[in-house]
Structures are given as structure tokens and as C-alpha cells.
């Protein structure tokens, strides 16, 4: 790779790669009449039906409870790991935890814990622990070292952290935890699509029944839930919130798992089939090669195709759309643009893809649209906030001229860096789209779990983790070459404005 890459060159390379992959993408409508489906959905969405408020309310409370408990456990685990970030073992564990999507964790945990509150909480907590560990470690590293230097020699690591580091980084940690609660609510809602009693479960139920009015009510309440986080969530009341969430989850009914499920999972289910049959290492390599050739490579290729096209479309939406939230560009339409971006970034990619599947049928198109709209809204929102803060001369133009000749050039480097940062996240989300029937890696993982071939599922999860970790490493390398190096923690903390809508 060249020592120095220009930002336009990076953008052109990624755009060319995405366009080159379009012929390999399945973008068909699968015999659906999208306009008829859209009209049916529109009629229901324009007349939201809150008649099933009891079921919706129960799912709403469960969504909040799973999110709060999952984020809390993940944050505590990440905080415990962060001071030891220098250890290669801790860094490797963090990468492994966060590279597996919450839905994949849930599918595995359900084999041990059943469809239970513990499975949902841990499915959120495990990847979030890896994320929190990395971000907290970088916050600790960036803190002023001078207070720690005045402590007496021989002060233990924990005391140094509690008295010299934690007070300095606490405001940043608090803001990041609040942002992660918003992410946790999205993760919690999506867990309903695989059986947990959150909003996704009710949304799936109403769509299967063709009750679009009730589905509309769910989506309205969900957007309000996300948009009002600053009003109802206060860290000062965190203990009360967590106690209430834990009590609610403890009351949820769930089918019990048989005794010895964990032991069987560790000693039988995830042990490669050749080893269980006593074939030894001689049978392991052919078995592994067959999985990688017939499922791993096709699934990885489809994941990369969808992810790269979605990344390019994400950039196009973000770059063209960030002016919609800038007053001197959009004028009175700014509020409408702001509302549109808030709604799009509030819905998880998985939920948006589920909605698009009802319109376009099973193909790569719903996944690409969902990934691009959600991530494009996030980046567009961030760029719009930064554009509003740019000082402009009094005689600066307005409208499209201001966007094209002043704001876009000044924010282009930031735009490319944010797209590169979201690259790994988009690929991670692309893999899980397979649970909806799209032929990415998640499709093969879901099939393996359904067939109780958890050893195969584990191999495919490793492939998924390798792709997302590889994209993260490549993203860092490219950002460093183009002179836009800001650590992931800095970019991720840039999402802080999202918590205030």
C-alpha cells in the first residue's frame, strides 16, 4: 500500500469496487409487485392501531429491560478488562467477542439457556463487553498521566485507576454508555425476531398476520422510545432502572432447559464431527475443507458483495444528505430532513431489511437498502452536526451552492474516515442478514443451528469474525495512509450527539 493516499483516491477506489460487484448481486424482486405491497403497508401505517396495546406495551418494557441489563453487564465486563488492554490475550478476547453479532450469540446461547432472559442479556453483553473494553482502554490511555505520577511508589493498579484515571475519564465514559444504551435498544428489539419477547417478536407476528396498523403502532412507539432517551434515562437513577429491569426479566416465563445442557454443548455439540466419531485429525481437514468450500466461501463472497455495495450507497446517501440538516442549506425543510435521518438511524438494519423483504421479496436488495439507509443516516447526521458548527463568513452563499463549494470540500476527509469506520460494522451486519433468508454467512449459520450442527456453525462464525476483523484492520491502515488517523474510540465517541437525537 502506498505511504500516502489522498481522500478522493480512497473514495474512488471503494466506489469502483462497489460498482464492480453490482453484476454479482441478486437485486431481483422475486416476482413481487412492490407497489401493491407498498400500498397495503402504507394504508396500515397511515392508520396505526394501538388496540393490542397490552401486548405491545409488554414487548416495549421487555425491550428496555434486555437493553439496560445487557449494556450494564457489558460495560462492567469491559471496564474490568480495560486496565489490562496491554495484554495480547485481552485484546484478542475483545476482538473475538465484538466480531460476533448479538443475534449469532443469541442462537448459540439458546442451545444452552433456552429462550430465556439470560440468553438475551448475555447475547447483548458479550459483544458489548469487547466494544467497551476497547473504548474504555483508549479513554484511559488518552487521560492526563500527571495525577497518576504523584501517587506513592508501589500503588497497585486498581488504586491508580480508581483515584487517578477514573475521575478524568468519567464524563466521556458516561456519554459513551448512554450512546450504547441506544444501540442496546436496537439490539434488544432485533432479538425478538428469533423468539425473545421484545418488539421484534410482536412486529414479526403482526406482519405475518397482515396487521399493518398494529405494526405501525409498534414502529411509532419504538421511534419515540429511541428519541426520548435523554428524557427518561438518567444515570443518577441507574440503580433503580437496573433493579426494575432485572425484576421484570425475572418474571418472564420461559421453557426450562434440561440438565447438563452446558456440559453437552462444550463437550459434544461444538466438538467437530470427525473427532466425535473417533476419526482423529485425519478426518478433520477434509471435514473443515468441505464446510469452507461449500458454505464458508459462498457465504463470505455474498457477505462481501452486499457489504461493499451497501458501503458505497451509504456514502452516497450520507454525502448527498447531510445538507438536509443544515439550516443555511435546507432552509425550512431542515426539520423534515432531521426527522427523516432520526427515523432511519433509529431502526436497526435488520428490522429495516425485514420491512423491505415484505416489499421486494427475498434477494440482496432489501439488505443493501437497509444497510445503506441506516448507516447513511448516521453518517449524514454526524456530518450535518459538524457542518452546522463550521464558522462561515457573512457573505457566504446558501442552499446547494454552500453545500457544494464550501461544506462538502471541508468535510470530505471526515466523511471518508467515517465511511471507513462504518465499513467493519456494515460487514458485521451484512453477515447476520442471512437469518432473513439472504445468502450471506448468516444463512448458513442459521441452517447449521437449525440442523443442530453447532460444530459447523462455530466454524462459520470464525469466518464471520475473520471478515469483520480484517475489514477493521484494513480500515485502520487506509485511514493512517490518508492522514486521517483518529482512533476508533474517537470516531465512535463522535456518535455521542446521536443520544440527544
Automatic annotation (TrEMBL):
Annotated TM spans: 56-82, 103-126, 212-232, 239-257, 300-326, 338-357, 363-384, 425-445
InterPro entries: MetI-like_sf (IPR035906)
Subcellular location: Cell membrane
Membrane topology: Multi-pass membrane protein
Membrane among keywords: yes
Recorded coiled-coil stretches: none
Keywords: Cell membrane, Membrane, Transmembrane, Transmembrane helix, Transport
Gene Ontology cellular-component annotations: plasma membrane
Full protein name: ABC transporter permease
Organism: Paracoccus salipaludis
Taxonomic lineage from the root: Bacteria, Pseudomonadati, Pseudomonadota, Alphaproteobacteria, Rhodobacterales
Amino acid at each position: 500500500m502506498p505511504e500516502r493516499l489522498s481522500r478522493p483516491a480512497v473514495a474512488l477506489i471503494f466506489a469502483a469496487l462497489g460498482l464492480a460487484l453490482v453484476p454479482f448481486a441478486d437485486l431481483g424482486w422475486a416476482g413481487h409487485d412492490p407497489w401493491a405491497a407498498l400500498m397495503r403497508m402504507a394504508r396500515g401505517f397511515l392508520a396505526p392501531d394501538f388496540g393490542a396495546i397490552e401486548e405491545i406495551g409488554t414487548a416495549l418494557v421487555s425491550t428496555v429491560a434486555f437493553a439496560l441489563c445487557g449494556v450494564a453487564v457489558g460495560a462492567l465486563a469491559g471496564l474490568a478488562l480495560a486496565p489490562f488492554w496491554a495484554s495480547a490475550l485481552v485484546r484478542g478476547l475483545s476482538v473475538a467477542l465484538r466480531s460476533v453479532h448479538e443475534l449469532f450469540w443469541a442462537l448459540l446461547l439458546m442451545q444452552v439457556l433456552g429462550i430465556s432472559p439470560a440468553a438475551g442479556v448475555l447475547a447483548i453483553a458479550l459483544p458489548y463487553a469487547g466494544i467497551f473494553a476497547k473504548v474504555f482502554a483508549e479513554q484511559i490511555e488518552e487521560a492526563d498521566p500527571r495525577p497518576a505520577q504523584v501517587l506513592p511508589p508501589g500503588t497497585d493498579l486498581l488504586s491508580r485507576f480508581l483515584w487517578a484515571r477514573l475521575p478524568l475519564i468519567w464524563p466521556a465514559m458516561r456519554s459513551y454508555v448512554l450512546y450504547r444504551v441506544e444501540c442496546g435498544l436496537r439490539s434488544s428489539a432485533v432479538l425478538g425476531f428469533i423468539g425473545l419477547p421484545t418488539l421484534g417478536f410482536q412486529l414479526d407476528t403482526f406482519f405475518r398476520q397482515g396487521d399493518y396498523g398494529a405494526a405501525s403502532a409498534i414502529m411509532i412507539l419504538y421511534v419515540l422510545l429511541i428519541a426520548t432517551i435523554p428524557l427518561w434515562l438518567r444515570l443518577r437513577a441507574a440503580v433503580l432502572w437496573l433493579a426494575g429491569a432485572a425484576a421484570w426479566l425475572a418474571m418472564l416465563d420461559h421453557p426450562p432447559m434440561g440438565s447438563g445442557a452446558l456440559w453437552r454443548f462444550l463437550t459434544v455439540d461444538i466438538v467437530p464431527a470427525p473427532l466425535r466419531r473417533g476419526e482423529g485429525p485425519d478426518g478433520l481437514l477434509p471435514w473443515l475443507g468441505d464446510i469452507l468450500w461449500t458454505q464458508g466461501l459462498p457465504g463470505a463472497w455474498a457477505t462481501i458483495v452486499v457489504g461493499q455495495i451497501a458501503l458505497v450507497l451509504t456514502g452516497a446517501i450520507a454525502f448527498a444528505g447531510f445538507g438536509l440538516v443544515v439550516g443555511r442549506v435546507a432552509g425550512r425543510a431542515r426539520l423534515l430532513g432531521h426527522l427523516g435521518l432520526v427515523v432511519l438511524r433509529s431502526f436497526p438494519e435488520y428490522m429495516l431489511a425485514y420491512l423491505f423483504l415484505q416489499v421486494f421479496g427475498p434477494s440482496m436488495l432489501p439488505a443493501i437498502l437497509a444497510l445503506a439507509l441506516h448507516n447513511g443516516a448516521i453518517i449524514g447526521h454526524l456530518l450535518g452536526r459538524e457542518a452546522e458548527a463550521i464558522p462561515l463568513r457573512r457573505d457566504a452563499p446558501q442552499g446547494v451552492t454552500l453545500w457544494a463549494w464550501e461544506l462538502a470540500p471541508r468535510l470530505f476527509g471526515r466523511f471518508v474516515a467515517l465511511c471507513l469506520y462504518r465499513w467493519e460494522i456494515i460487514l458485521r451486519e451484512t453477515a447476520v442478514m442471512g437469518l432473513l433468508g439472504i445468502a450471506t454467512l448468516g444463512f448458513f449459520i442459521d441452517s447449521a443451528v437449525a440442523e443442530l450442527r453447532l460444530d459447523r456453525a462455530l466454524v462459520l462464525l470464525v469466518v464471520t469474525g475473520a471478515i469483520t476483523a480484517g475489514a477493521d484492520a484494513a480500515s485502520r491502515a487506509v485511514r493512517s495512509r490518508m492522514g486521517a488517523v483518529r482512533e476508533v474510540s474517537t470516531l465512535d465517541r463522535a456518535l455521542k450527539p446521536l443520544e440527544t437525537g
